[in-house]
Amino acid sequence: MRQSKLFTKTRREAPRDELAKNAQLLIRAGYVHKEMAGVYSYLPLGRRVIENIESIVKKEMDALGGQEIRMATLHPSEPWKQTGGWDAVDVLFKIDSRTEKEYALGQSEEEIVTPIAAEYVPSYKDLPIALYQIGQKYRDELRAKSGIMRGREFGMKDMYSFHTTQEDFEKFYEIVKQAYLRIYAQCGLTAKVTEASGGSFSQKISYEFMVLTDAGEDTILYCEDCDYCINSEVAETLTEGVACPNCTKRGVDSKLKRGIASEVGNVFDLGDRYPRSLGFTYKNEQGAEQYPVMGCYGLGTTRLMGVIVEALADDKGIVWPSAVAPFAVHLVNALPNDPEAVSYAENLYKLLSAKNIQTLYDDRDVRAGEKFADSDLLGIPQRVVIGKETFSENTLELVSRATGEITRLTQEALLQFLQ
Amino acid sequence: MRQSKLFTKTRREAPRDELAKNAQLLIRAGYVHKEMAGVYSYLPLGRRVIENIESIVKKEMDALGGQEIRMATLHPSEPWKQTGGWDAVDVLFKIDSRTEKEYALGQSEEEIVTPIAAEYVPSYKDLPIALYQIGQKYRDELRAKSGIMRGREFGMKDMYSFHTTQEDFEKFYEIVKQAYLRIYAQCGLTAKVTEASGGSFSQKISYEFMVLTDAGEDTILYCEDCDYCINSEVAETLTEGVACPNCTKRGVDSKLKRGIASEVGNVFDLGDRYPRSLGFTYKNEQGAEQYPVMGCYGLGTTRLMGVIVEALADDKGIVWPSAVAPFAVHLVNALPNDPEAVSYAENLYKLLSAKNIQTLYDDRDVRAGEKFADSDLLGIPQRVVIGKETFSENTLELVSRATGEITRLTQEALLQFLQ
Question: Which residues contact A300 (CB under 8 A, 6 or more apart)?
Answer without folding.
Answer: A154, A155, A156, A157, A264, A265
